[in-house]
Every structure is written in structure tokens, then in C-alpha cells.
Design a protein that fits this description.
The complex is a heterotrimer. By secondary structure, chain A is an alpha/beta fold. Chain A has two domains: about 20-140 and about 280-350, Response regulator (Rossmann fold), CATH 3.40.50.2300; about 145-270 and about 360-395, Rossmann fold, CATH 3.40.50.2300. Helices cover about 40% and strands about 20% of the residues of chain A. A four-stranded mixed β-sheet of chain A has the order 1-3-2-4. Chain A has a four-stranded parallel β-sheet with strand order 8-7-9-10, sandwiched between helices. In chain A, helix 2 (about 35-55) packs parallel to helix 12 (about 300-320), helix 9 (about 225-235) runs parallel beside helix 10 and helix 12 (about 300-320) packs across helix 13. In chain B, the strands form two sheets. Chain B has a six-stranded mixed β-sheet, sandwiched between helices. Chain B has a four-stranded antiparallel β-sheet with strand order 2-1-4-5, covered by helices on one side. Chain B is an alpha/beta fold. Chain B contains ten helices and ten strands. Chain B has helices at about 40-50, 70-75, 95-100, 105-120, 120-125, 135-150, 165-185, 195-200, 220-225, 225-230; strands at about 1-10, 15-25, 30-35, 55-60, 65, 80, 155-160, 185-190, 205-210, 210-220. Chain B has one domain (about 1-235): Rossmann fold (3-Layer(aba) Sandwich), CATH 3.40.50.300. Chain C is an all-alpha fold. Helices cover about 75% and strands about 0% of the residues of chain C. Chain C has eleven helices and two strands. Chain C has helices at about 5-35, 40-55, 60-95, 95-120, 145-165, 165-175, 180-185, 190-215, 225-235, 240-260, 265-280, and strands at about 135, 140. The longest helix of chain C has about 35 residues, at about 60-95. The chains are: A alpha/beta, B alpha/beta, C mainly alpha. At the B-C interface, helix 2 and helix 3 of B face helix 6 and helix 7 of C. The structure holds adenosine-5'-triphosphate (ATP) and magnesium ion. Adenosine-5'-triphosphate (ATP) binds near residues 34, 37, 40 and 42 of chain B.
């Protein structure tokens, strides 16, 4: 692994031999070393699958794709250096990859200055696409969009009359609250009250007792694994029933071990491709991935890496025969990217005028029990749903222990 | 019975005793006089094992005790009622006495001694369930003496039992000390401010100044000594 | 009809009972040895993990009751080792600051070892009642919470009786009140230190099992009990055992009522506000500091 990373740093290239035609060079940046190396390697595995499929079908307009990797180590300075090298020395046509918002804010600026299209795969800061940069695109939802699925579900399915907030006292909790509050206003749901807790708190009985008096239809609860699990347990102990809605990151193995069936009916959102097997495109991706990497399960990063390269390849294809003039060709690719309209493993991909994908949003998941074992199932949108939404029932009616 | 042999004791770097030698024979009442800061309490603390001598040795009934921990020395029968009473303020009078008997296992004998001290100090009997911290100075001194008696001492060391007491109460204490000496036949080493009384009741006396024993004689002899009269008897 | 006020009082009394239990151990150790043990809550953490492993092996009631016994014994033993190995040598030779630094070091060490051996994943203890809830009209709670409360009360009462009746218990109090006089009564204070540290640690361990039953178990879980125990100890008067018992309940109820009627955001601050007020008005704590 370390050796591989080293090879990547040295700029060794992974090219597919497709006849004698000269390959089209695509630069890929990512934190291939450092603490995020594992996640970056997931992204890369998704990209390598996409590369196999593209070159296996004859490449792009008869020419194979060639990926040139640049390591950012999740540090903006390293990212800028890697991007500059790819753009001026390797003369790549387009820059893909990503991960780490702070790095991508910098690298996208560099690429834009060089009039080179850049398609960011993973990074959620809204800044990346809201600076009016003409060559910047992003195939990942930004942070407000992570809550978009829930917002749509609230408006179309749940239509709550009253809601309450019980949030982690952090930027994460408070930013999430702002987005949901705006949506509640739009759909006419009344916000009864807002409570906060500190990261590391263990006793939530005071707040839950107050919530119980308010009886909200929906209680938004942004919390990480431990706190979220304790809140579920204590809600049961205090005999409080509500529709809990969180972001989704809390639904880990540890969470289900701690809560057991108590977490039934809790909701959040998820981009896990393996949850969305009802979608044929996603299912095909998962199958192809498991064939190429036996025994492993594609996660969100693999899916985002795959889609990223697929979007780039599609734009290259639509850009048509290249002139050989780098500046002109880069402009052609950018224009092609703007017209992207694909269905990929994350869902539909179309870019807004700002270059931000606006058609990808996480699916809404609910914890449901099978044989008293809790797991998350997609309940919305209908095209991906693996189960139907279930209204929380009173504790006395629940069978599993 | 007790042999203190040429001991030197220091608090950190400051020496408090410089080669002190003192003996107490079985059945004696010996008094130790000296002005404030002479080193009397230091000597008693060293005998009790709270301080360790830098040089010299201490033996009790022929056994070397200067390297024993304090509780072992109490078990051998060397017990003191410390200066300033040092009762356990939040414990009841009865529990204070119970702590006095901490090393003893013979419940019957303890009960007998408890009766003895309650007879000796009827006021303690009346206040047996009261917290020791609420006692008057005289009562607390009685408790300190009674508590030491419950350890069934062979050698009882009293450090200024009359300190800070009103004259009438002081008389009571003097009386009780003599009564204990006579009825219990216990050997006593008495440190006392009131030299006149102490020299009167003690068979022998030591005078300590600046950490040294400067005189040693029969009580009655020392009472006639001119230096002692001027320094301690206020003549 | 449900009463928010009563519900919050009940919530407060339940956590308060566990605060008391853990704080009593801390205040005992302080009272006797003048040690402020910042690793006290980590002894609770060890107790909680003993319960995790025992319950994995023997589930249900037997396991839960066994966990309490094993935690008391195991953490008590750990206390003896730590007292002998770490604190006793410091008692005479080192300054208060050294002692505090060492106990903070111990707390960091214990957290890291726990992380290493047990992993960071939080765990919960399975409830032998199977999650039965108790709805008493005005208030609701779970059978397990009530049992934790009852257990804490029983342990506190047994401790009170021991300290006031047993020869060794009274000697512990005597040593706390006057170390020198205790030595002069023939009390082996090294033995008292060992017993006190073992007992205080065992209480932390028992409190840890109850805390872990109510909440969750993870390597850094000791921080909150330590913090609360210090608040309770200062409130009750450093070294004052009964003070700690009452202050634990006072803190528990003050936090829930403060959180309900003042502001949830200040819930953790409430303990400190009370401390500051009490120390300004009654410097020795609500119930007076232990002597000497
Ligand atoms: N804990 C201590 N640390 C340092 N020096 C001390 C300590 N205790 C006593 N001393 C010093 O040792 C000397 C002897 O003190 P000690 O208490 O033995 O005198 P004393 O004869 O009992 O006096 P008094 O009649 O006032 O009780 C004094 O100079 C005193 O200041
Ligand atoms: Mg003195």
C-alpha cells in the first residue's frame, strides 16, 4: 500500500493499452497518503472500475483514457502543487477526484485559473461551487443537499404539523437545524421548541421529559453514534414516542449494538449504494464492483469515485474529436460537462449553472426490524425504496426486546 | 522500663533534641519541665514513634522501639494523651473512647475500663453520645486522658494536661492524674507547665532547655534548686 | 396526567443517587488521605467494563448482580494496588501539586489502556428486566432505573452503617479527622489508607456499573463521573461523607430542574454555579469540611 502510494507520488501512470491510439490524459487528485488514505483508496477503486469499463468498450472516441494521480495528503499546499504539476507538466485535459473541502477549494481555483475543467468527486463545502468559477463542477452533493432527501420526504410524505429540535450543540447540529427550520417554515410545520446537548453528554432524561410534554410529530436529532443511541434508550425508559430524524451518520454497527430494537422507526439519510439495490443502475454498479474486488462492499466513496470518472468520460465523448490545441480542447470539454445528463450509481447527474450536481441526494432510510434485528432500509424516494415508511408505534405495542 | 538513650531529633534541618537521655522506672511518676519550645513534646512524639531519632535509641521493657511504627508502640503499652487534646471532633465521646481501645481484643476488660473512666469522669458518662467537638476544654482534656487509659497503658505519657484550662478545672485534672497514678498503678511520664504541682507529685523530674536535659533529680530536690525556683516556680 | 416537575425530580434523584455513590468514594479518599484523585471516574470505568465482560459471559440477573460484586472486588483490588504503588509513596514526600499531576497522569493512562484493550466502541449493558418501563401515572421510568436507584441507596446505607458501627469504619473516620491522634491510639494508618482506598475505589466501581447500566460504557466515560464527583465533594464539604451523599442528590435534582426551568444549555454549568454560590456564602461547603 505504502509502495503503491509512493509510486503514485512519483507520477507513475496507470494506462490501459488500447491499440496504438494516443491516450487521453485525465488528472486525479486525492489524499492517497495520510489519515484519509483508506477512503481515498475506496474512491480510487471506484475509478479503476469505471476505467476498466470505459477502456474495455474501446475507450473514448477510439482513444483510451489514462489516469495520472496526484497526492494531496489532504493538505491545501500539497494539493495545489499536485494540481499545478498535472495541469502544466502532464497537460491533462480535465481534473477529477477530490476529497477534503479545504484542498478542493484551492485546487479548483488553480484549475479555473488555467481554464481547465475540474470535476470534484468528494467534498461537501458549498464554497467549492458558489464562487462563480466557470470551469468547476461537482458530482457530490454539497452539505445542504445531504438533508434534501429528508426535506422532500417531509414535504411529500410525512407533512408534520409540529416538530421539535434536539441537537448536538455544534456547527454540525446548528447548521442542520437552520436547513430543517427553513423547510418546516415552507411546509407549515410548527417548531415547538429546540433543545441542545453537548458532545459527550450521557444523561438526556431532562430534555426527553420536556419533549414528552410537547408531543412533537417529528423530533430532529442530529447526534453522533453514542449520543444518538443513548437518546433512543432513554426515550424508551421515559415512554416517549416520536418520529426521530437524524442525518444518518449515526447508524453504525456500534449504534445498533447499543440500541438493539429500541432504535426501530428512527430515520436518517444514506448514500450507501448497497442500500439502493432496487435502482438497476446502482445494482449493476454494485455487482460489477464486487466482481472486480471479490469480498468487498462498495461504500459511498467508491460510488462517488465511479460516477466522477464516468461523468468525465461521458463529457469527453460528447466533446468529440480533439483538435490537439490544449486550451481549445479544455473549453470543449467544459461545454460538454455543462450538458451532462446521466444516470449513475448515485442517481441522476445534471449540473446547475454553478456546476453543482442538483439531482443527487441521499435516500431517506428508516430503521426497521427483521427478526428483531434492526437495520436501515431506504423508504424514499420510491424509485429506490426497499421498504415502506412505518409510523412509530407506542412502546407497549412493540414486541421485540 | 523506658530508656531514652542520647537521642537527636530534627524537623528537617532544624534540630530540636540534642542528645537527650532519660529513663522512667516501673511504677514511677516522672515529670519533664521546660520552657516553651524546649523540646518536650518532640521527645514524647519520638517515644510514641511519630518522629524517628537521627541518632541514639529508645527501649521499652528491654525492647528496642525507636524503629517501630506508632501503632506497634501503642500495642506494647506506651500511650500518650497529646498536647492540645486532639480528640476526634465528629465522633461521639463513646466512639472516641472506643478508638482508645482500638488495639485491644478483650471486650470484657475494655468494658471494665470504660466503667472505670466513666466513674472517674462522670461528665463524660453524661455526654457519651455527644460529638467530642462540642465538649468544653476541660471535658475534652478528660476525654483525652480517658481515651489514653482505655488503651490499657503500661506507660502513660501526658503532655501538658492542664494547658489552657481555668484554675478550677485545672485542679480537677491534677486530682484525677494523682488518682489514676494511685488506683491504676500505671507508670506516668508527665509534661507540665505547672511546675509547682508537678514537682510536688512526681518522684523524679527532668528539666529541659533548648533540646537538652540540663538537670535531673528527685522532685523535692529540684523544687529547692535556685535556678528552678527562678525559672519555673516564679519565685 | 403527567407532571413535568415530578418527572424531573425523579430523573434527578436517579442520577443523583449514582453521583452520590461515586462522590462518597472520592470524598472518603480525600478525607483520609488528602488525595484528590482525578482518576476516580476511571475506576468507575473499570467497574463498568468488568460488568460488560461478566454479563457477556453470564447474562441476565445472575450476571448483573455478579457484576456488582465483581466490580466492587475487582476495582477495590485495583485501588489497593494503585494506593500501594502510586499514592502511598507520594503521601509524605510529594507536594499537593505532584499528587494532582500524578492522578491526572493515572487518568490519562487508564483511558489509553482501556482504549487499547477494550476499543473505542461504546457498549451498553443488557437490561435484565428486558426494558420494562414503569408508568406511575404522574411519572414514567424504567424498572432498571428504579433498581439502580435502589441499589445505590442500599450501598450508601450499608456504607453509613459500616462507617459508624464497625471498628474499622470508625477508625477510618478517626483517621480522617486527626491522623496523628489516630496513630497515637494504635491505629495502623497504612492499613487504614489501604482499606479506605480499596473501599473508595470499590464504591467507584459499583457506581460505574450503575452508571454504565443507566448510560453507556466507553474508555473515556470516566470524565463525567469524575467531574460530577468533584462538584458533589466540594458542595458537601471536602471529606464530608454525609455531605457528599446529600449533595449528590441535590446536584442531580438541581441539574434536571435547572435544565427544565432555566435553560438546558446551562445544565452542566448549574453544578458550578451552585459551587460558586456556596463557596462564596459558606466556604466550607453545605455540610462543612472534614476537620484538620
Ligand atoms: N512540626 C515542626 N516542624 C518544625 N519545627 C518544629 C515542629 N514542632 C516543633 N518544632 C520546633 O521544635 C522545637 C521544640 O518544640 P516542642 O513542641 O517539642 O516544644 P515544647 O517543649 O513541647 O514546647 P511547649 O511548651 O510550647 O509545648 C521548637 O523550637 C519548635 O519550634
Ligand atoms: Mg509541647
Amino acid at each position: 500500500m505504502a509502495l503503491l502510494a509512493l509510486a503514485l507520488c512519483l507520477g507513475l501512470t496507470l494506462a490501459a493499452p488500447a491499440g496504438a491510439a494516443e491516450p487521453i490524459k485525465v488528472g486525479i487528485v486525492g489524499p492517497f497518503t495520510g489519515s484519509l488514505a483508506h477512503n481515498a483508496s475506496e474512491m480510487k477503486k471506484g475509478m479503476m472500475l469505471a476505467l476498466d469499463q470505459i477502456n474495455g468498450q474501446g475507450g473514448v472516441n477510439g482513444r483510451p483514457l489514462e489516469l495520472i494521480f496526484g497526492d494531496t495528503s489532504c493538505k491545501p499546499a500539497n494539493g495545489v502543487a499536485a494540481a499545478k504539476k498535472l495541469l502544466s507538466r502532464d497537460k491533462v485535459l480535465v481534473l477529477g477526484g477530490g476529497y477534503c473541502s479545504s484542498v478542493n477549494i484551492a485546487t479548483s481555483e488553480v484549475a479555473n485559473a488555467e481554464k481547465t475543467p475540474v470535476v470534484v468527486a468528494i467534498a461537501i463545502s458549498p464554497t467549492i461551487t458558489n464562487r462563480g468559477l466557470k470551469y468547476v463542477f461537482r458530482t457530490s452533493p454539497n452539505s445542504p443537499m445531504f438533508l434534501q432527501g429528508i426535506n422532500n420526504w417531509l414535504a411529500e410524505v410525512k407533512k408534520p404539523k409540529t416538530v421539535a429540535f434536539f441537537m448536538e450543540n455544534s456547527d454540525y447540529g446548528r447548521d442542520g437545524q437552520k436547513i430543517w427550520e427553513a423547510q418546516c417554515k415552507k411546509i407549515g410545520a410548527k417548531v415547538l421548541d429546540s433543545f441542545y446537548f453537548e458532545i459527550g453528554d450521557t444523561d438526556f432524561t431532562t430534555q426527553i421529559s420536556k419533549l414528552k410534554q410537547l408531543k412533537p410529530d417529528v423530533t430532529f436529532n442530529i447526534a453522533s453514534t453514542t449520543e444518538a443511541a443513548l437518546i433512543q434508550k432513554q426515550a424508551k425508559e421515559l415512554n416517549f414516542v416520536t418520529q426521530w430524524i437524524g442525518v444518518g451518520g449515526q447508524f453504525t454497527q456500534a449504534y445498533f449494538k447499543m440500541t438493539g430494537p429500541v432504535s426501530e422507526f428512527a430515520m436518517g439519510s444514506s448514500l450507501e449504494p448497497t442500500k439502493a439495490m432496487k435502482d438497476p443502475v446502482t445494482a449493476a454498479f454494485v455487482k460489477a464492483y464486487q466482481k472486480k474486488y471479490p469480498g468487498s462492499r462498495p461504500g459511498i466513496f467508491s460510488s462517488q469515485g465511479y460516477d466522477n470518472l464516468m461523468v468525465i468520460a461521458d463529457a469527453l465523448k460528447r466533446a468529440g474529436k480533439l483538435s490537439g490545441n490544449l486550451a481549445k480542447d479544455r473549453d470543449k470539454v467544459r461545454d460538454a460537462l455543462k450538458a451532462t445528463d446521466l444516470k449513475l450509481s448515485q442517481g441522476a447527474i445534471k449540473f446547475g449553472p454553478d456546476g453543482q450536481v442538483f439531482t443527487v441526494y441521499p435516500s431517506v432510510v428508516q430503521v426497521q426490524l427483521k427478526n428483531c434485528q434492526p437495520d436501515t432500509y431506504i423508504i424514499y424516494p420510491a424509485s429506490r425504496a426497499a421498504a415502506k415508511y412505518l409510523e412509530p408505534t407506542p412502546w407497549s405495542k412493540r414486541q421485540c426486546k | 522500663m523506658l530508656k531514652v538513650d542520647n537521642i537527636t531529633v530534627a524537623y528537617g534541618k532544624a534540630k530540636a533534641l540534642h542528645g537527650v537521655t532519660l529513663t522512667v522506672e516501673q511504677g514511677e511518676m516522672v515529670t519533664l519541665l521546660g520552657s516553651n519550645g524546649a523540646g518536650k513534646s518532640t521527645l514524647l512524639k519520638t517515644i510514641s514513634g511519630l518522629l524517628k531519632p537521627r541518632q541514639g535509641g529508645i527501649s521499652f521493657l528491654g525492647q528496642q522501639i525507636n524503629n517501630l511504627p506508632p501503632h506497634k508502640i501503642v500495642e506494647l503499652g506506651v500511650v500518650q494523651a497529646p498536647e492540645g487534646r486532639e480528640v476526634f471532633p465528629s465522633l461521639s465521646v463513646r466512639d472516641n473512647l472506643r478508638m482508645g481501645a482500638f488495639t485491644r481484643r478483650d471486650e470484657k476488660a475494655v468494658a471494665r475500663d470504660l466503667q472505670f473512666v466513666f466513674d472517674l469522669f462522670p461528665r463524660l458518662a453524661e455526654r457519651r453520645d455527644q460529638a467530642a467537638g462540642t465538649l468544653s476544654g476541660g471535658e475534652a482534656q478528660m476525654l483525652a486522658i480517658a481515651r489514653a487509659l482505655l488503651a490499657d497503658p503500661k506507660l502513660l505519657m501526658l503532655d501538658e494536661p492542664s494547658l489552657g484550662l481555668a484554675p478550677l478545672v485545672r485542679e480537677d485534672i491534677f486530682h484525677v492524674v494523682q488518682q489514676i497514678y494511685q488506683e491504676r498503678r500505671v507508670t506516668i511520664l508527665l509534661v507540665e507547665q505547672n511546675a509547682k504541682w508537678a514537682l510536688g507529685v512526681a518522684s523524679r523530674a527532668y528539666i529541659m532547655e533548648n533540646g537538652r536535659i540540663v538537670m535531673e533529680d528527685l522532685g523535692s530536690k529540684l523544687a529547692e534548686n535556685e535556678h528552678v525556683q527562678r525559672a519555673y516556680l516564679g519565685y | 396526567m403527567e407532571s413535568l416537575f415530578l418527572q424531573q425530580v425523579v430523573n434527578g434523584l436517579i442520577v443523583g443517587s449514582v453521583y452520590s455513590l461515586i462522590a462518597v468514594g472520592l470524598t472518603m479518599i480525600f478525607g483520609v488521605m488528602r488525595i484528590s484523585n482525578f482518576a476516580h471516574g476511571d475506576f468507575s470505568m473499570v467497574g463498568a467494563y468488568i460488568a460488560v465482560f461478566l454479563l457477556a459471559w453470564v447474562p441476565g440477573w445472575m450476571g448483573w448482580v455478579g457484576s456488582l460484586l465483581a466490580a466492587a472486588a475487582g476495582v477495590g483490588l485495583l485501588g489497593i494496588l494503585v494506593e500501594r504503588g502510586v499514592f502511598r509513596p507520594l503521601l509524605t514526600r510529594w507536594t499537593d501539586l505532584d499528587q494532582i499531576m500524578v492522578s491526572i497522569g493515572l487518568f490519562i493512562l487508564m483511558e489509553n489502556l482501556a482504549q487499547l484493550f477494550f476499543g473505542a466502541t461504546p457498549r451498553t449493558l443488557s437490561d435484565p428486566f428486558g426494558g420494562v418501563t414503569v408508568n406511575m401515572g404522574l411519572v414514567s421510568t424504567s424498572a432498571m432505573r428504579l433498581l439502580c436507584f435502589a441499589m445505590a441507596m442500599v450501598i450508601i446505607i450499608v456504607l453509613e452503617v459500616y462507617l459508624n458501627r464497625a471498628r474499622m469504619g470508625v477508625a477510618i473516620q478517626a483517621t480522617a479527622q486527626n491522623r496523628t491522634a489516630a496513630q497515637l491510639m494504635g491505629i495502623n494508618i497504612n492499613l487504614i489508607y489501604a482499606v479506605t482506598f480499596a473501599l473508595g475505589s470499590a464504591l467507584a466501581g459499583l457506581g460505574g456499573v450503575l452508571y454504565g447500566t443507566l448510560f453507556a460504557i466507553y474508555p473515556t466515560m470516566g470524565a463525567i463521573p469524575t467531574l460530577k464527583a468533584f462538584v458533589v465533594t466540594i458542595l458537601g464539604g471536602m471529606g464530608n461523607i454525609r455531605g457528599a451523599i446529600f449533595s449528590g442528590f441535590i446536584l442531580g435534582v438541581a441539574e434536571t430542574l435547572g435544565g427544565t426551568y432555566i435553560s438546558m444549555e446551562y445544565k452542566h454549568a448549574i453544578g458550578f454555579v451552585i459551587i460558586i454560590l456556596v463557596l462564596l456564602i459558606i466556604p466550607n461547603g453545605l455540610f462543612g469540611r472534614s476537620e484538620k
